[in-house]
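step: validate -> pass
step: tokenize input -> pass
step: predict -> running
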Amino acid sequence: MSFTLSMMNNADIPGLIVIKAASFGPEALQNLMFPPDKTAQSYNPWAEALYRESLTIDSTACFIKCCNATTGELMSSAIWNFYHSPEQFEASNAHESVTLNPPEGSNSEVWLKFLGVMKDARRRHMTGQAFYLLKLLVTHPQHQRKGAGTALIKYGISAADKTGIRCYLEASPDGSGLYQKYGFKKVEDIALDLHPWGVDDAWRGVVMIREVGGK
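step: predict -> pass
step: emit ->
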């Protein structure tokens, strides 16, 4: 199947949210942070506003998409943040701390704990450096294994290699193998214990870094 790669615009945001939901599916952490019975009406408008703000205001954010070349259907989307200086990374964190509030009905305690795990990992590994962050990569299940997600990964790592900058991401344990194919290496396992909120489980992630050239 052939596809096109291009920058996203505001009209693509609802499709991004649909693909994200289909790609990740229901999971313990997501349901804890955003209980479906309490956030059914508030989650999508909140997520749309969040992504639109980033697309419009954040100069480091690169929203990119792959679409079916024949039908124009959105197949896969990615958000890269190109931090060309440590100051850009710190400014982005500061902005999120002020503006990022969860939607009505959500569990803000779990939400903030999860954000803290992610932000702490980024600071441990990337403070004081320029780096490219793959913040989000989602492919609709109907379009997986067709090369769309790979194209979005290659877009960012190619740009990073041209500028001599490392890449960083947090992957799921199941998804980390895909990134290893393109030069990312695991540097840390991270987790959020969900027992305090009555769930006999933990969210787990894999911190991965790609050196310039994938070496």
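step: describe -> The chain has eight helices and seven strands.
step: cleanup -> pass
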